Every structure is written in structure tokens, then in C-alpha cells.
Amino acid sequence: MREIPFSLKEHPRFSSPEVGLAVLGHPIAHSISPVLHKAALEVLSRKEPSFSHWTYERLDVHPKDLRRALDQLSDAGFIGLNLTIPHKVEVLDFLDQLDPETSVMGAVNTLALRGNHWAGYNTDGYGLKMALEKELNCDLQDAKILILGAGGAARAAAAQSLLSGANLVHIHNRSTKNLIVLTTLLHQEFDSERIVGSTPQAFNDTDFCGKDWIVINATSLGLKPGEPSPLFIPCNKFGKQSVFYDMIYNPPKTSFLCEAEAGGFQNANGLSMLVYQAARSLEIWSDREISARTMFEAAKSHFSD
Question: Which of 111, 150, 163, 286 suits a disulfide with 118, CB 3.0-4.6 Å?
Fold first, then answer.
């Protein structure tokens, strides 16, 4: 993987049979997406040599340059893009075509060139759903989901849970304002009886004590060493069949997950979500089935180096 991400002034150009793929963000140097996609493309190319001409890169794109980047990259032979912070919401203003579920999630993390325009998709929800199923043996259907946070990641998690038939989605957030914004948006799309919210100043602990929940950390708490867990009641008060999932994957063990592990609960970090959403993106671009296992192995090798 190239050590320094490309900029809009120096990115590569591709001509048939070459194909360009990339992840756009600001900053973007931390992204391991190229590691995942290049490993999967290598496997694809063994069966179909044409995929050996596909390349995945990182591009640092300032928010003010996003629209120009989309036009420039389509002209340069890029046919697929992933988007990360801060572009997932802003890009909606520049797209004419959206996957139906993407509009509900309110964010786009995958673009595919269709003719002369970009179509938007969100594979984050799919990534979360698959991660819960494969890592924690959880089915969102009829489940009770507790989501910590009320930002973009929380919205994707809540929308996917509701689309998948969750019985109840409870969103807990420090800020009342952001909580109201998110629950209001969700109420417009889904049965309001399945959506509730709370803050640290206003919650009923009897809703959680002794009851089984799928608890998802969708906050940024845990990214920095020493940051506290976002849990608002002791982990051991939850029902024994509760599971805990942290969207953060680096560091691999946040305070949230350490608390869950100490309580004897099943838990997992966000690497699995990253892998499954990446695999789904590559399936959209390639129209081929992608091996998530290959991506997992590449990620683990990367972090062990």
C-alpha cells in the first residue's frame, strides 16, 4: 500500500483494460481499505485475469473539493469509490441516483459509476448486520437493539436494525438535541413504536436490567487511549444473553469491550463490519461474489506487522 495517499493533483489515470477504485476521506492516511480490496482483487484475478488490472488507492479530498473530485475521477477511469468522514452525507447533494435503502440511512459510503453519473449506496448497514450474524451469532429480526450515540454511524445502525425487523431500537445519547434529530428522522420512515430514546439525565434502568440486548457502540469514545466506556449503566446489569459490539476497530479492545469481556459477555470490535461492508462494495463494482475471509486475513496480517 502506498504510504502517502494521493491528492487530486497527482492521482493516477486509467485507460482500458485498467480500472480505478479508491477511498476518499479527509484525513485518509489511516484507512486500511486498500489492504482489504487488493487482497480480494488478487483472489479474483486468479480466476479472471482481467481483475489484475483493477487498482484501489486512497485519496485525500478536502470537503470543498468533493464535487470536483467526483467529476475528475470519473474522467480518470475510476469506476468505484468508497467514502468516509467527512463525505458520507455531503455527497448526497451531488447524486441523482440512490439505492432505496441508502436514502433511509441518510449517508453514502459507496459510489458506482453508471454511464456518466455516480450512483450511491450504503454498505455500512449490511456490514453491521453480517458482523453481528457471523461474529456474535445475532439475528436483528425481533431483537432489542441499544445504540449508543446519535450521529451518522448510529443512524445507519438504527436504520439497518429497523429494516431487518428489530422489535425495538433504543438510542441513548449524551446530547438531547442530536437525539431528537435522529429519532425524528427515524419516525418519518418507520413505525414510531419501535423507536425510543434516552439521555444520561433521563432513562429508566429497569428497561435494561436483567434483559437481553444487542448493545452497539456508535460513538467515537474509545478511539483514544484511556477514554471511558459510553455505557450508562454497569455492563453486568444487562441480561446474560446480551452481546456487545463496538464499531471501533482500532484499538481492538476499547473500554466498552473490556467491560463486556470482564462481565463474561460475547463481544466483538468493528473490524468485521469494516470487512463485510468492503466486501459488499467490491461486489457492487465487480458483480462477483467476494471472499470476506480473504479480507479478514489481509487485515489481521496488516495489524500484526
Answer: 111
